[in-house]
Amino acid sequence: MGKTIMYAAMSADGYVARTDGDIGPLFDWFGNGPIAWNWLGGEMRTNQASKDFIQTVYSDIGAMVVGRYVFDQTNGWDGQAVAGDHVFVVTHEPPRTWEYADTAPFTFVTGGVESAIAQAREVAGDRIVDVAAGNVGGQALRLGVIDQVVMNVVPVVFGDGRPFFGSAAGEVTLANPSLVAQGDGVTHLLYDVPRSAKI
């Protein structure tokens, strides 16, 4: 079975978006470097350190797990799985109308985060399951079903917003970073989640 990672860009004070959902400059580093390369079907421009980090950590994605908020903010990426073969959306209620519902590789999961990740693991097999940071990622971490936490820390302070680890209560101790890379306008950190931290 492949790894399950929690992944996102975040502000220096720990937010994946502003309170209104605006991401500000959190992904500017995708296009501000000297090296052009392809990732997830699009062109990136980063420095070599960012390229190496992403290709090491975030490759061979089999499936994604996101919350309803991310789905609504992106309109489900217009029915495309932006990473992996399938997207599992954790929601209390599936959308009643969505123009891509009959063709998109999306499953709306009403049984909670653990159910969504279990279904994603079935699809991903030996590949990675990518869980979006925020409330869904934070719940998954505290449930003990995350193997690694990937933070792409951007040097901006929002002051308030949507926390990287969501609002769920509970303490989890991570290992020291096993990989650190300095990009242009971003610092990449990879943390393993110790077995003792998992339920």
Automatic annotation (TrEMBL):
Pfam families xref list: RibD_C
Entry GO MF terms: 5-amino-6-(5-phosphoribosylamino)uracil reductase activity
Bacterial bifunctional deaminase-reductase C-terminal domain mapped to chain residues: 5-171
One BP annotation, GO: riboflavin biosynthetic process
Entry-linked InterPro entries: DHFR-like_dom_sf, RibDG_C, Riboflavin_Biosynth_HTPR
Superkingdom of source: Bacteria
TM spans (from-to): none
Gene3D superfamilies, alphabetized: Dihydrofolate Reductase, subunit A
Protein name: Dihydrofolate reductase
